[in-house]
Amino acid sequence: MEAQVKLISIVIPCLNEQEVIPIYYREMSGIMNKMTEADFELLFIDDGSRDGTLELLRELSRQDKRCQYYSFTRNFGKEAALYAGMKHAKGDYVVVMDADLQDPPEMIPQMYEELQRGEYDCVAARRVDRRGEKQIRSVLSSLFYKVLNKISKVPLVEGARDFRMMNRAMSDAVLELGEYNRFLKGIFGWVGFSTKWLEYHNVERAAGETKWSIGKLMKYSLAGILGFSTLPLSLSSYGGIVFCGAAFLAICFLVIRYLLWHDPVQGWTTLMCAIFFIGGVQLLCVGILGQYLARTYMEVKNRPIYIIKENSEEGRILGECLE
Ligand code: UDP
Ligand code: MG
Fold first, then answer.
1. I need a surface site. Which of 32, 184, 208, 242 has the fewest CB within 10 A?
2. Is 319 exposed, middle or buried (0-12, 13-18, 19+ CB in 10 A)?
3. Which residues lie with the beta carbon below 6 Å from any ligand 1 atom?
4. Which CATH topology does 7-229+304-321 take?
């Protein structure tokens, strides 16, 4: 009896990617035609693009039945797009990858082969260098991985991409984590499962521009730290204890000095420095608390992670919330 043909779902988040989508599709078609042992579905998620992306996706889905698209009402972010895509993926295996060919499609056959052996649940790509990327970005990114690995229990592999192929079980586990503030790299680590890492050299974007400004990356890093570690909270309470101890010693010292030497009023500079310093530390700690509270607030509201306005199956669903 012939083995059942497996379905591979590929999830591709797209924000203003009109330049690269045709190139991506051409490359991917080559791979799909070569991999005759599997069926494919390509799920493009239009994350509120303002260029011709949606037009292109409509056209693609008309031409090729394997291509489907889901279009958001606005930009909800890459994490939301990946979540939406994974939610709609029907495959035995699910791949997440960028549209800009920085995740080389030629790695897919190798990933599939590895997974077929059944030893691993997931095969993921790891960049061993960051050639062609801005130096400042590489340095900040490396620092972020070091910090997060130190303070969080979830292991994060440096250079790890979102690009990976996982089996149904792992994909379902990832979808179980329906949190609003999503940090997929952490979620992949959190769900466990065995992952094989394939190394590759950085590839530059095929066309178009990166959607990540330094500000956006900072926000992303903060989401990672706050989402997967409560250490900043503990640090502020430990800081409080240290400051109480220091205050106690200072009080003893001042009282004794007054009793022994009847010191006249003095030390305005010291006083002002202490007030500013402690004021700063307090604000910082309240700020940390605020960050966690804000995230809790957003989670408690239980808002949908994304809203779809149009898809390839039903066409325009104007404002209807699918979740
Ligand atoms: N992306 C998205 N929504 C966003 C930002 C990015 O869907 O808000 C998509 C983008 O279209 C691309 C992928 O996420 O397919 C990675 O983005 P990009 O290549 O700009 O990031 P970089 O590779 O520079 O980290
Ligand atoms: Mg890219």
1. 242
2. exposed
3. 13-15, 17, 47, 75, 77-78, 81, 98-100, 102, 205, 210-212
4. Spore Coat Polysaccharide Biosynthesis Protein SpsA; Chain A (3.90.550)
